[in-house]
Design a protein that fits this description.
The chain is α+β, with helices and mostly antiparallel strands and 229 residues long. It has 2 domains: 88 residues, no CATH class; 121 residues, no CATH class. Helices cover 57% and strands 10% of the residues. It is built from 8 helices and 5 strands, in the order ααααββββαβααα. Strands 1, 2, 3, 4 and 5 form a 5-stranded mixed β-sheet that branches. The longest helix has 35 residues. The chain starts with a helix and ends in a 5-residue tail after the last helix.
Length: 229
């Protein structure tokens, strides 16, 4: 019982911290959350007044409005906190690694450590999921093309029949915006089963040499701290 109470208190503190951090960069957040909380209550009171019912309805409708308001506040706070986190890291070296580490769904496996990186801090990350092996380039498209091609050849040598998909996140051309990276991965056509995903990831991890390191100036854990759980 005490452990459950401590866990609940920790979540409340975490949400308060997320709110404070997000409000620093999102000045409209307090008013938006206030509207999300008050609007369902007003609607619930109007329904209780317009719809015929007993005194119990006058209690049930406002309580329902309060619960809906709290739920909306949590959902909106989470989404705006995530958007703020993306805005803070977008365009910085290691941003893709932060997304790989903290925002990928469980059906995808990868590491915040790039499989290739150059002196300009352009990097290539590798993730494995139902859509196959995906190489995500970050930085200059021109400079990352060769690195991504080299990594594809390595994958093909180890796993000849596995599909390799290239995605680009960066300022050049029609790249995938950082906030939409997770969605772009989910939209890929499934070509591997879950068991095959684990096997492919283990195979590639065993062949991977020493980690090349995370670009300086980016902490992958920063984005994780912005999201309420």
């Amino acid at each position: 019982m005490a452990a459950e109470q401590a866990k609940r208190t920790g979540r409340i503190r975490q949400m308060i911290e997320v709110y404070r951090t997000t409000k620093t960069h999102d000045t409209k957040l307090p008013w938006i959350l206030l509207l999300c909380f008050v609007a369902p209550i007003i609607v619930a009171v109007l329904l209780a007044w317009l719809l015929p019912g007993s005194w119990f309805a006058w209690i049930l409708w406002p309580v329902t409005g309060i619960l809906v308001g709290i739920l909306l506040v949590m959902i909106v706070l989470g989404r705006r906190a995530e958007r703020t986190a993306y805005q803070q890291i977008e365009g910085r070296p290691g941003a893709v690694g932060a997304v790989v580490q903290s925002a990928l769904r469980r059906s995808w496996r990868g590491s915040e450590v790039p499989v290739a990186i150059n002196r300009n801090q352009d990097a290539v990350y590798r993730v494995v999921g139902r859509g196959g092996v995906v190489l995500i380039s970050e930085g200059s498209r021109q400079r990352t093309q060769r690195m991504a091609s080299d990594e594809e050849r390595k994958v093909k040598r180890a796993l000849r029949n596995v599909a390799v998909v290239h995605l680009y996140v960066g300022p050049d051309g029609d790249g995938v915006p950082l906030p939409k990276l997770s969605r772009a991965l989910v939209k890929l056509k499934p070509v591997l089963s879950r068991a095959e995903v684990d096997a492919v990831y283990s195979r590639l991890s065993a062949l991977q040499g020493a980690p090349v390191g995370i670009p300086k100036g980016m902490d992958p854990n920063r984005m994780r701290s912005q999201r309420p759980r």
